[in-house]
């Protein structure tokens, strides 16, 4: 009786919780404030919000989660949802077009105190901080000869970093297994600019990351990812690899810096492609330094930007390989065949036994009838 009462109370609690949750919802879209050092999010609900707002992947970190059930004297949540730039695994990305810095993160508004439900919402927050264009002028009286300004601006390219299945032009991956063959692809849609892939990291989405390509564009661990291969036009680089992941993590993402250089008049010489096979050769390093210093004097400054691959959800390999599976299938087939033969044998034995029992019973019944008839005939003879 006591257990039934507890179960009923539990059902009533969950029903009451669901009723409260379904009775509340967001009104409109959240308002985002991109401040100088922080990002704030404000939102409205139909009734008082008593849930939580947290950064995706950082729920267990108190500084990345706000509990709206705790209010101050004015009825506002204590602390509110305010994130400093770079906090709670916030992405910090240098952009090419428009030129500037972008901070982005994913905030989740959860109505239930413990679980994610259909009422909850996730928002990808982006704040773009553009670099201010500064023009410096100076008037120098040299002569009365008029000056004419000639300016030619090349459009900045659109670049991307994707992970493809099996080959360079394969489909973009989202799900994979450990050991699957993939191709990392870095590309800029321009014939005027060349690119250098450098400073690459692999991260697990929870703050842990590991460098796999150094600042010079050379690999740090060939088992994870080797040196990128560059096409002749220098606007595309790629590298074959095998899928790997962190232990006890299901997602990985890669971040790389791409350095752009103008190919005209040798603007990419000494920058890309990197000479990774001669990393230990100091003479080659000196030549690269000379070339880059010459480019600096010519005011040809390379442009760096940050790029992220898609998030890749990785499953572990199956415990049994194909050969083992085939063996298991063969054993299963043999077992089925043996079982069928055994059932047939049992059926034959059962039918034979039934026939034998029927025959014995028939013989016994015939014997009984015969004895009764003989006894009857004997009594008639004696009476006569």
UniProtKB/TrEMBL annotation:
Pfam families: CUT_C, CUT_N
Signal peptide: 1-19
Disulfide bond listed as a keyword: no
Nucleus recorded as keyword: no
Keyword annotations: Cell membrane, Cuticle, Membrane, Signal, Transmembrane, Transmembrane helix
Subcellular location: Cell membrane
UniProt protein name: ZP domain-containing protein
